[in-house]
Amino acid sequence: MTDDKLILLLKICICSGFSLILLGIYFHNFNHTIESMGVNGIIISAACVALGMALSLPTKMYLTFILVKRDAASSK
Fold first, then answer.
1. H or E element at residue 33
2. Which end of the chain is more exposed for a tag (fewer CB within 10 A), N or C?
3. CB-based burial of residue 44 (10 Å sphere; 0-12 exposed, 13-18 middle, 19+ buried)?
4. How far apart are CA 50 and CA 71, in angstroms?
5. For the segment 10-26, what is each residue's pLDDT rounded down to a tens digit?
């Protein structure tokens, strides 16, 4: 896989993770159906936030590492 395709894939993962985090926040604060579900609703909103964090945070670190490595190689 080339660096350009990998960077695109990582950016898609970051956007998906951020979207899941926002969805979990929406479920927790504004959705009355999730609120009426009780504990199961809390689990659903927390799972959305947790999956979003799992997708976005490590991906940001790896993407930063790739971009720094790429910049160092191009400056030589």
1. helix 32-36
2. C
3. middle
4. 32
5. 889 999 999 999 999 99
